[in-house]
């Protein structure tokens, strides 16, 4: 019978070793308005009722409801968090936890078009880093910022599983494949000039950010949505 082998996996604590307490992580907060006016709340309740009715349990409707409230202000506000929580019987903390997990939900005012440049490995080596640098310089904004005219918010994106078409740029999550710095500058210039742009896949012009949010919520793009994203 072989002898047992003992492996020492950790050093014993040494007396006098100072305990290092990591710095506190800043709390994630939501800005914007605290509550909706009655007319807006009423309109959102009608849309929310239609969404919630599609699910056997109300809380399953949280993701489309977050898109719905995002369509109202162009980002998730405190009012949006409270609205979703109240409608679904969740706490604000539970709702905020979901809203902060997914990068599609934004916490700051957003332009009419979110232009995302993929800078993950394949896109980066195929030119994504160069595209992002060129567009940053052209628009004179950093990722996460919005142009002064409110038209474009620039972001760098993680891989969108479209590596075959690298480097990839997205506008409101619609794909623009095989981009170059020049083609992306043409794209953002068209968006700023109000020229309709058509994605590489799918049909029709790319909707505004708020219109896209309503589509993702599964409700019609309504008359009140003027397409302004901020
Ligand atoms: S690395 Fe850009 S889509 Fe995959």
From TrEMBL:
Keywords, in A-Z order: 2Fe-2S, Iron, Iron-sulfur, Metal-binding
Cofactor(s) recorded for this entry are: [2Fe-2S] cluster
Record-linked InterPro entries: NuoE-like (IPR002023), NuoE_dom (IPR042128), NuoE_N (IPR041921), Thioredoxin-like_sf (IPR036249)
Q: Name one GO molecular function term.
A: NADH dehydrogenase activity
The record's cofactor note says: Binds 1 [2Fe-2S] cluster.
* Presence of keyword Iron-sulfur: yes
Instruction: Provide the binding site for [2Fe-2S] cluster.
Output: 118, 123, 159, 163
Q: Which family does it belong to?
A: Belongs to the complex I 24 kDa subunit family.
**Protein name (database record):** NADH-quinone oxidoreductase subunit E
Traced from the root, the source organism's taxonomic lineage reads: Bacteria, Bacillati, Actinomycetota, Actinomycetes, Mycobacteriales
